Amino acid sequence: MNAAPAKRRERAIEFTGQKVRAFQNGASNVTRLIVKGAARQWLIDQSPAWVASHADELCPFGQAGDLLWVREAWSQDFANHYPFTTTWYRADDDRSYEIDEKDGVRGIYSPEHDEHVPFRWRSSRCMPRKASRLTLEITGLKIQRLHDISDQEIIGEGVRQARDGSGCWVGREGPRRLMTPWLTAREAFIDLWEEKHGPGSWEANPWVWCIEFKRHINGI
């Protein structure tokens, strides 16, 4: 009698708006997350390949075939003025620059209704499953030191050449999505990594989970 196929698991994972945009336009198909917990302890006595082969037990993000539904900054605060099913995503249109205060209420002017509508961005941590628009299906998983990332893998992380024809590379977005140019893709990735994990986090050269995936827009 054949055993029933294992049911793939589904987990939530948070990403910045910049990373979400890279997922959506196909610029990123991999992400690196620092190894923590039991997996880190096993690396003392076992090889990275052994730990990765036990991802179903040791990786908090799952194993090949599992799904990660993406949490991102969002809002439904226009629900009283638009259909409740409408969701705004900060990664698409950073309307925080338009938010002002009127009569003690933070909001945005709505030209459709000619009024000041209360509005705020909600933390990605508060996003429910039904509001998520992006699901990542894990296709590959390994463990390596952060410094072992290849130039091709750096591009897979969303680092790209600047569009001004300068030949420079960009990774991290600043205010109003302005990009800091670097001479090499590796420098741009280091800047991106340290913006997220803090100064010195690149030099620390931690063990990282390298998770490759296939994206599914609007869930799966």
Quick overview of this protein structure:
By secondary structure, this protein is of the alpha+beta class. It is 21% helix and 30% strand.
Can you describe this structure?
The protein has helices at residues 17-24, 37-45, 48-53, 55-58, 151-156, 185-197, and strands spanning 10-14, 30-34, 67-71, 74-75, 88-89, 100-102, 105-110, 115-118, 134-145, 160-161, 169-173, 179-182, 207-217. The chain has 220 residues and is of the alpha+beta class. The chain folds into two domains: 10-72 and 130-216, Hypothetical protein (Archaeosine Trna-guanine Transglycosylase, Chain: A, domain 4, Roll); 74-122, no CATH class. A five-stranded mixed β-sheet has the order 1-3-9-13-2.
What CATH architecture of the largest domain would you give?
Roll
Strand-and-helix sequence, N→C? EHEHHHEEEEEEEHEEEHE
Number of strands: 13
Name the average pLDDT.
83
Strand numbers in spatial order across the main sheet: 1-3-9-13-2
Which helices and strands, and how do they pair?
Blueprint: E1 10-14, H1 17-24, E2 30-34, H2 37-45, H3 48-53, H4 55-58, E3 67-71, E4 74-75, E5 88-89, E6 100-102, E7 105-110, E8 115-118, E9 134-145, H5 151-156, E10 160-161, E11 169-173, E12 179-182, H6 185-197, E13 207-217
Parallel strand pairs: 1-3
Antiparallel strand pairs: 2-13, 3-9, 4-5, 6-7, 7-8, 9-13, 10-11, 11-12
List keywords for this structure.
220 residues; alpha+beta; Archaeosine Trna-guanine Transglycosylase, Chain: A, domain 4; 5-stranded mixed β-sheet; 3-stranded antiparallel β-sheet; 13 strands; 21% helix; globular
